[in-house]
């Protein structure tokens, strides 16, 4: 056990990941959309800066793909995954009155990542899920667990710096294929 840069002990990636994400979700629910946008932009920027390292780490750890393609995929996901802009209310009227549809968060979402594109999947899922007001528990592929854990930690640091709660993203400590 040791402390990460947010002062959390190593249990943040253990079976308590869901409990930690639930606490973050409860805090996140009161966060204004303007702050969500700032958090998402901080995540995008951190991913852009980390992309060369993430791409290299993923190829080295998994033995799959190549760095050049992972550079492209990570940047594509960081730059193009929709955020809160797609969550606008929708209103329509007709013969039977007015209907207003507003999106609401699910809560804590469990997400599984593949070994082939671990960091690309994390940034894509993280942006889209937290934009909707949710928290995420990642169960990453065991063959990419070190790279994935590092990236989730880096994303949490970006989230906190931009005004979001600690543990909005968590990961299983010892992911397995069964889990």
Shape: globular
SSE string, helices as H and strands as E: HHHEEEHEHE
Distance linking N and C termini? 22 Å
| Quaternary class | single chain
Structural class: alpha/beta
Helical residue percent? 40-55%
What does this structure look like?
The protein has 179 residues and is an alpha/beta fold. Helix content is 49%, strand content 13%. It has five helices and five strands, in the order αααβββαβαβ. The strands form two sheets. A three-stranded parallel sheet has the order 3-4-5. The chain has a two-stranded antiparallel sheet with strand order 1-2. Mean pLDDT is 91; it is low at 7-13.
SSE arrangement:
Elements: H1 17-28, H2 33-62, H3 67-80, E1 90-94, E2 97-101, E3 108-112, H4 118-131, E4 135-139, H5 145-161, E5 169-171
Parallel strand pairs: 3-4, 4-5
Antiparallel strand pairs: 1-2
Helix pairs in contact: 2-3, 2-4, 2-5, 3-4, 4-5
Descriptive keywords:
three-stranded parallel sheet; 179 residues; alpha/beta; two-stranded antiparallel sheet
Summary, kept brief:
By secondary structure, the chain is of the alpha/beta class. The chain contains five helices and five strands; from the N terminus they run H-H-H-E-E-E-H-E-H-E. The radius of gyration is 17 Å and the shape is globular.
């Amino acid at each position: 056990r040791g402390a990460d840069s947010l002062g959390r002990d190593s249990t943040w990636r253990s079976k308590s990941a869901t409990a930690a994400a639930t606490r973050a979700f409860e805090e996140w629910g009161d966060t204004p959309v303007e702050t969500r946008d700032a958090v998402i932009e901080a995540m995008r920027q951190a991913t852009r800066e980390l992309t060369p390292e993430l791409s290299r780490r993923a190829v080295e750890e998994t033995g799959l793909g190549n760095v050049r393609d992972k550079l492209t995929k990570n940047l594509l996901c960081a730059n193009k995954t929709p955020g809160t802009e797609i969550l606008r209310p929708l209103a329509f009227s007709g013969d039977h009155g007015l209907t207003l549809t507003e999106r609401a968060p699910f809560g804590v979402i469990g997400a599984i990542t593949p070994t082939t594109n671990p960091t690309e999947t994390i940034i894509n899922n993280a942006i889209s899920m937290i934009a909707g007001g949710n928290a995420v528990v990642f169960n990453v592929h065991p063959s990419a667990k070190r790279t994935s854990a590092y990236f989730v930690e880096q994303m949490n640091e970006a989230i906190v710096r931009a005004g979001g709660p600690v543990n909005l993203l968590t990961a299983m400590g010892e992911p397995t294929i069964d889990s």
